[in-house]
Specification:
The protein is of the alpha/beta class and 422 residues long. The chain has 3 domains: 246 residues, Purple Acid Phosphatase, chain A, domain 2; 88 residues, no CATH class; 73 residues, no CATH class. Helices cover 28% and strands 23% of the residues. The radius of gyration is 26 Å and the shape is globular.
């Protein structure tokens, strides 16, 4: 490869091999259960295939290849087998350990291939491509124990101008309440030291934290394993030219797509109609997965005539059973659960004529929507609200209400009625 050619690598993280799917409520058929157990391993196989197909120079694994410190022999064997395939294809690998697979965890003693660099508990560096220090340098550090509270980002060196450096780090950036504070650091810690690209692990949602000078990305997990991990999961294909310009593309690698399908019951007048509507929604979602299997939950919401039926014992479970009654060939589509958060329909005309507080509320909403002065009055009040520095952080983006003022009135009316009727 020419010295001035862009470097290309795959950034992956959080495989969690051998991890079970968490939170399943249904009894899965054996074939589906086997496919789900195999899904994280299949995602790793697909990452290896992607690297070979794209002829990248390296694969970077940003921690948590295994699900826990007592990783199984099967998990270790499958991970090393993938590293060996990459090594045979001439693709280097760089691996750090995170809080789920720290260095002091159980090791089956499998030999890693020569093209794999495993980083220790103190910061180390290695050429991205063995024997080619002119291409780029990777800096990385592993967790020795599960509970690492050091700010590892601050241990990375300042890179001299003209050198191309990549940071490989398992950490919690910022104060995200959904993430444990392992190796906590700030965005500021990732800036200003000359690292061109931060390949981050630990957070299971794919997130671009910094989009230039430097680029910092959480790859997320390659396979969703719980209901907080819905949507496409995968890795990043990264290219950096000799001027340090970074380009990156997300590539989905999940074998089983997890989704929560929200469905409003307003238009369904019979259970059969509701079943048909949800079946159509599930079919449309499955068509968007790119041929993957689909594991989904249905979240029924809104107001409609079927509310009372859905409150009866067994109604939600029966709907889920019907959705799963016709398994087809090929990728599966399986409803794990139907959740019901619906309400009875409102007779607005009757409540409007009621002569009580609710009637007064509805009259005000009608007046705002119907009169020429109503919307300007509302806009003036909202301008004052959004102009208040104390309240602004708790509000939606400025001016978003102006796009659909009538919809805002309707939404406010429904919310107020919900509170008054509790």
């Amino acid at each position: 490869m020419a010295d001035d050619a862009p470097i290309r690598f795959i950034h992956a993280a959080d495989l969690h091999l051998q991890s079970p799917f968490v939170g399943l409520r249904s009894q899965l058929p054996n074939a589906i259960a086997r496919e789900m157990v195999e899904a994280p391993f299949g995602a790793w196989d697909d990452i290896v295939d992607l690297a070979i197909r794209e002829s990248v120079e390296a694969v970077l694994m940003a921690g948590d290849a295994y699900d826990d410190a007592e990783r199984s022999l099967r998990a270790q064997h499958r991970f090393v087998a993938g590293l060996e395939r990459l090594d045979e294809a001439g693709i280097a690998t760089h691996v750090i350990c995170g809080n789920h697979d720290p260095l002091d965890g159980w090791d089956a003693g499998l030999e890693f291939p020569g093209g794999c660099k495993r980083y220790g508990p103190d910061l180390e560096s290695a050429p991205l491509v063995p024997g080619r220090p002119d291409r780029a340098t990777v800096y990385g550090v592993s967790f020795l124990h599960e509970h690492c509270r050091r700010n590892l980002a601050r241990e990375f060196p300042r890179i001299e101008r003209g050198q191309l450096a990549i940071g490989l780090l398992h950490c919690a950036v910022g104060d995200d309440p959904d993430e444990d504070g392992y190796a906590p650091c700030s965005l500021t810690d990732l800036q200003g030291n000359g690292i061109a690209y931060w390949a981050l692990g630990h957070v299971h949602r794919s997130r671009v934290l910094l989009d230039g000078n430097p680029v910092a990305i959480y790859a997320g997990c390659p396979q969703g394993l719980r209901w907080s991990q819905t949507g496409p999961k995968g890795v990043y294909l990264v290219e950096i030219d000799r001027a340090g310009e970074v380009r990156f593309d997300f590539v989905a690698t999940d074998r089983v797509r997890m989704e929560v399908l929200s469905h409003d019951i307003a238009t369904a007048e019979t259970p059969a109609q509701l079943l048909a509507e949800v079946q159509a929604a599930a079919k449309a979602t499955a068509a968007e997965t790119g041929g993957r299997s689909l594991l989904y939950r249905v979240a029924l919401e809104g107001r409609g005539p079927l509310h009372r039926h859905l409150q009866s014992a067994g109604a939600a479970a029966e709907l889920a059973d019907e959705l799963n009654s016709r398994p087809g060939d090929g990728p599966f589509s399986w409803c794990d659960r139907v959740e019901v958060a619906t309400a009875a329909p409102r007779d607005r005309a009757r409540r409007r004529a009621g002569g009580d507080l609710i009637a007064d509320l509805l009259a005000v909403c009608d007046q705002l929507a119907a009169t020429e002065s109503g919307l300007p009055r509302m806009e003036a009040a909202l301008d004052e609200l959004y102009g208040n520095a104390e309240y602004r952080p708790y509000l939606a983006g400025p001016g978003c209400w102006a796009e659909d003022p009538a919809g805002l009135i309707e939404s406010a009316e429904n919310r107020a009625l919900d509170l008054l009727e509790e």
